[in-house]
Amino acid sequence: MTGSNSPTAQYKNFTDRFKRDSESAASRASSFSGLPTWLKWMLYALAGMLLLTIVQSIGDTDRLTSTPVSREMLRWAVPVLLAGLGGLFAERSGIVNIGLEGMMILGMWFGAWGALQFGPWIGLAVGIGGGALGGLLHAVATVTFGVDQIISGVAINILAPASTRYLSQEVWGSPTQSPRIDGIGDWDLPFLAGGSIFGWESPDILLTIGKWEWWFVSDVADILRGLLRGTSLLAMLALFLVPFSAWLLWRTRFGLRLRISGENPQAGEAQGVNIYLYRYVAVIISGALAGLGGVVISSPELSGQFLEGNSGGRGFIGLAALIFGNWRPLGILLGALLYGYVFGLDLKDLDGSASHALLLLNGIALSGLAIWTLAKRQIADGLLAGSLAIGALTWWAVADSVPNWWSNILPYVVVLLVLVFFAQRLRMPAAEGIPYRRGES
C-alpha cells in the first residue's frame, strides 16, 4: 500500500500532528508562566473563588462567599500576615525568629499604652517600637553573642508576657488588661463599596451586583465588597507591605545584601557586605512588623484594648504562613488569608452548614492533589492524598455538621499537608539558623 493511505504515511501524519499539539501545549504553558506574577495570582484567586462558588452551590449554603465572612477573613488575617512578613525578613537574613509571638505581645502592650497617652497614631509608632525593641534584643543575643537562635526566641516569648503583665499592673492597676483605646479609623472605597467623597455618598456597585444573584459573578462581588468596605487603615497598610517587601527584598541593593546574608554570608563578606549590620537590621525590622501586628490586635479592629493572652499564638501561625508561602511575601499573604478565612467563617457560621461544606472543598482539593501527584509518578504521595480525599468526602457525606475543633485546627492541617506534599518545592535560605562569625569559612 502506497500514497497518503499507507500505514507509514498515516503514522507520519499522526506523529506530526502530535508534535504540533505538543508544541502548542508547551507554548500555552510557556505563555502562562510568562505572565506577570500579579496576574497569575489574580487568576489563581478567581479559580479559588470559582471553586468556593461550586462547593457553596452543592453544600446548600450562602456563607462561603458572603460579605461578612470576607470582611472577617481580612480582619483576622492581618496580624498573621504581619508576623509572617516579620519572619520573612529575619529568616532571609539567616536568623530564625520564633520570638515573633513575644515581639507581638510587646507591640500589643506598647501600642495600647501609646494610644492611651498620646493618641492612636502615636500609639501605632510606639507599638512598632516595642516590637523592634524585642527584635533588637534577639539580634544582640544571636548575632553578637552567638546564642542559639531557638533558645533566644523562646526566652523572648517567656519574657514578653511576664514583663507586660508587670507593666500593666504598675501602669493600669490591672495585670491583664488596659482601658479601652481609640482606633485610627477605616475607609470605604468610593463607587465600588459605597464610600463617600467630601460628604457625597457614592454608588455601591458591588452591592448592586451582589443583589443580582448571578452565579459566580455576584459571589465575586460579595467577596470583594467585604474586602473594600469598612477596611481598616491598618489592614490597608499591611496589604501595602506585601508588594513593598517583595520589591525591597528582590529589587534593591539592600535586599540583595540582606538575602546573601542568609544564603552565603562568607561570599557576602568577601564582597564587602557587613553581614552583622544586615542581620541586625533584618531582625529589628522583623520585630517591628510583629509589633505592628500586635498593634492591630490591641486596636478596635480586633479587641480595642490590651488583653493578656490575646495574641492567641498568632506569632507562631505567622511562622506557619511563612513556611506555607515558601519564604515569599505573596505566599505568606495566601497563608494568612487561609487562616483568616477559616477563622472568620467559624465566627459567622452559627449553624455549622458552611464549615460542613468546607469538608467537600477539602475533598475536592485533595482529589486534585492526588491526580497531580500520580501524574508526576509520585505514587506514595498520590495514594496518601487519595486516601485523605476519600476520608474527607466520606465525612462530608455521612455527617450533617463538623465539630468546632475542626475549624480551629484546619490551618495547621493545611501547613502539615504542604510540608508533606511539597517539601521538595520548599526552599528555605541556605544559611538559616547557622551561626556566623567574621573570617570563618
Note the topology:
Layout: H1 7-33, H2 37-59, H3 67-92, H4 100-118, H5 120-144, H6 149-172, E1 186-187, E2 196-197, E3 200-201, H7 205-212, H8 217-228, E4 231-232, H9 233-250, H10 253-263, H11 265-270, H12 275-298, H13 314-324, H14 329-348, H15 353-375, H16 379-398, H17 404-422
Antiparallel strand pairs: 1-4, 2-3
Helix pairs in contact: 2-15, 3-8, 3-9, 3-12, 3-13, 3-14, 4-5, 4-6, 4-12, 4-13, 5-6, 5-12, 7-8, 9-10, 10-12, 13-14, 13-17, 14-17, 15-16
The overall pLDDT average reads 87
Distance between the termini: 73 Å
Unreliable stretches covering 5 or more consecutive residues: none
Proportion of residues in β-strands: under 5%
Strand order of the largest sheet: 1-4
Number of strands: 4
H and E order: HHHHHHEEEHHEHHHHHHHHH
Provide the structure class: mainly alpha
* Biggest pleated sheet: 2 strands, antiparallel
If you compute it from the alpha carbons, what radius of gyration comes out, rounded to the nearest whole angstrom?
Answer: 25 Å
CATH topology of the domain at 63-188 and 230-349: ABC transporter involved in vitamin B12 uptake, BtuC
Helix count? 17
Q: What is the general shape?
A: globular
What is the C-level CATH assignment of the domain at 63-188 and 230-349? Answer: Mainly Alpha
Helix fraction bin = over 70%
The CATH architecture assignment of the domain at 63-188 and 230-349 turns out to be Orthogonal Bundle
